TrEMBL record:
It catalyses: L-glutamyl-tRNA(Gln) + L-glutamine + ATP + H2O = L-glutaminyl-tRNA(Gln) + L-glutamate + ADP + phosphate + H(+); L-aspartyl-tRNA(Asn) + L-glutamine + ATP + H2O = L-asparaginyl-tRNA(Asn) + L-glutamate + ADP + phosphate + 2 H(+). HAMAP family: GatC (MF_00122). One of its GO terms (molecular function) is ATP binding. This is Aspartyl/glutamyl-tRNA(Asn/Gln) amidotransferase subunit C. PANTHER family: GLUTAMYL-TRNA(GLN) AMIDOTRANSFERASE SUBUNIT C, MITOCHONDRIAL. It holds the Pfam family GatC.
Length: 92
């Protein structure tokens, strides 16, 4: 553990502000746990920073205009169609 300490009185004060009932043993336990969490955050400070952005590459294909389905071909497997459009259940 580092010098990042949380005393039980601070835990009890925060618990009181949050309207959480804690007894002395729970405040002690939470103080220890909070100190451990603060230590983990200090560990994150040791992670080296990334100096540059990775080179981004477009992995998608380029759009190409080509012939599409006719209206009859598009509606061929539709369960229901009306006036050249897909027909679905009413939304209400």
């Amino acid at each position: 553990m580092s010098d990042a300490s949380v005393d039980p009185a601070t835990v009890a004060h925060v618990a009181d502000l949050a309207r959480v009932d804690l007894d002395e043993d729970e405040a002690e336990a939470f103080a220890t746990q909070f100190a451990d969490v603060l230590d983990y955050f200090e560990t994150l400070d040791e992670v080296p920073e990334v100096d540059s952005e990775p080179e981004l590459v477009n992995v998608l294909r380029t759009d190409e205009a080509r012939e599409s389905l006719s209206q009859d071909e598009a509606l061929r497997n539709a369960p229901e169609a009306e006036d050249g459009y897909f027909e679905g259940p009413p939304v209400g």
